[in-house]
Amino acid sequence: MPDRFGIAAMKETARPLSEYTSLTMLVLDKTSATYFIEANTTTASIINGMARMHLLDEIILCTIPVIAGNGCRLFLGDLPESEWVRDGIKAYKDGSLKAVYRKSDGASVQKTDASLLKRLFRL
Q1: Tens of pLDDT, residues 36-73
Q2: Torsion sign over Cα 35, 38, 40, 41
Q3: Are 43 and 18 in contact (CB under 8 A)?
Q4: Is 0.90 surpassed by the pTM of this model?
Q5: 25 and 33 in contact (C-beta within 8 Å)?
Q6: Hey, is 35 helix, strand or coil?
Q7: 121 touches 10 (CB < 8 A)
Q8: What is the 8-class DSSP label of residue 116?
Q9: Are 46 and 37 in contact (CB under 8 A)?
């Protein structure tokens, strides 16, 4: 399958995270590193933990028009409210979409020092 969403380039420019990532490590990281994590059933819990700790700066949602069965929920219950603005959207000939959302500057949620995670996802 071709890399139409640019995921390979994102992986080359960012530090990968997995379901084994320590949230403590992310909070204590004093670098301006960019991290990348692909959402799936095994990484949903770490992504939800990052959302609870306000460690997400950018979310890229790639939508493919296929129903593959039951699916899984990425965002679990009891997450803090946050505001996001769409930074870009790209539609593909096959009906797929790539939408980029960034945390709103005027978000009313508690903010964590942005230097901890410069950006989670990159284009």
Answers
A1: 888 888 898 899 989 888 888 899 888 888 887 777 77
A2: negative
A3: yes
A4: no
A5: no
A6: strand
A7: yes
A8: G
A9: yes
